[in-house]
Predict the structure.
Amino acid sequence: TQLFSMVFRKLPGVSASGMGLRLSQKFVFLLFLSGLVTLCFGALFFLPDSVRLKRIFLESKTESASEKSTSSDHGATSDTFSYKKFKRCLLRPPLGTDDGKPSDPKTNERREKVKEMMKFAWDNYKRYAWGKNELQPLTRNGHIGNMFGGLRGASIIDSLDTLYIMGLVEEYNDAKDWVQTSLDLNSNGEASLFEVNIRYVGGLLSAYYLTGEELFKNKAVELGEKLLPAFNTPTGIPRGVINLGSGTSWSWGWASAGSSILAEFGTLHLEFVHLTELSGNPIYTEKVMNIRKLLNKIEKPHGLYPNFLSPVSGNWVQHHVSIGGLGDSFYEYLIKSYLMSDKTDDDAKKMYYSALEAIEANLVQKSPGGLTYMAEWRGGILDHKMGHLACFSGGMIGIGADDGAPEKRQHYLDLAAEITHTCHESYTRSATKLGPEAFRFDSGAEATATRLSDRYYILRPEVIESYMYMWRLTHDPKYREWGWEAVQALEEHCRVESGFSGIRDVYTLTVSHDNMQQSFFLSETLKYLYLLFSDDDLLPLEDWVFNTEAHPLPIVRKSCLKPVQFADPNVWEES
Ligand code: DMJ
């Protein structure tokens, strides 16, 4: 009646109280009102999926209905992680076979080609190496290796999210079934803490966030728990190797003076924060915050972080600094920790930008031919060599460009583009158009390998990873062209009858294959290529960060994921 009176009081012949309305007028009004409501509701269905209101409204309806009919939603209760609430907060709900489909037919064709490569790599793994860690495509058998202790199925875990986002549904279901029936976490054997974390924990976490399958969450947390004994050292800096059965841990035999490696203990943060998020157990975050605290406090030569640190004394063991192998993903995880915290983790931000300044001041060089590169630093002496691994830094500096000092934004974008250009040069200057493991800038060399031992290519992703980020950040078409050059080279030189293989020398066209289809080829190389040829709304960078094995992890937004409350937020300050 109040509504009637508000609307009708101004109409001629209607009394101020609205009570003067005739029955027929009331009926017409009601009819009009219900028509309007139906129209608004119906219109929601026609809005594009990216309209947040649509998802929030429609999905909250589905959610409350399903909550009434089932007692639990993926095990979530109101005070623990809620998968559905999290999913609503993403700009775009994940999966749908056409997610990210580009409208341009040429790009779409390229994307389909990458999908076909993934299917080919997967089918051969399934046929010849099912349940083993990697496929050996020439001998057509499985490889177990010694990086994951008794764990098996590295290629399956690393592929889950790639299969899922590509819409390879049958293959994804096979992978999921294997995790359900055959992934045995009760294994002994020497495992690399770093590799198990980035591939297994990262792969399971992202499979969970993409699909909501409880199975993946439970396995990730179960495995995370088994990694904890590695942190039982006088400093809390974990050792590199752990026996997942007994919990005994030790340092790599090759690491000087029993040291731990920067890129290993510095590449746990993203996964461990999510383990806390999903389990509600603060211990994981405490462990990595303790590492952060020590690194923040310790004196750094010229502001640089050396690659080796003693887990006993907490001191650097050698002054060898590299943005490539042994150092690389530590820097990556600083900026990504900041981004993943919805830009609230200010310590990570500060540490990242001061490290980057020190790197620029001490490591970044320009070759006589005008190529920008990252040299390595050995106690103050520069080694003018850049590893393939260091080529991820184009993308890293690109995604961090927005958040440093505002006047530096363009500078960082330029630096990111220059590094990516140099890495592309290392590809174009080889006969196969694939890049070597390391290339040099001395004795007349410019982005080429001078040593026989540096000439191999093992299907690594880092150069393509930087193409993908630079494409997302600039939309310069050259990055897609460079990615396509890599696809053609992979097809020509690495595709064999039963899978993809690395090659021993990128400078010769009579290629010799190394007989190994690395699991990161499925997890990273092909995923980054697929994203490069997709629209930006497939795993948008505003919603996801990729761990160093390219497993997407969601940004922890206060309104979506619920950062775990610590009894004492400064617990790691005190410990
Ligand atoms: C991957 O396992 C990860 O990207 C890691 O950070 C470095 N090396 C390989 C791929 O080259």
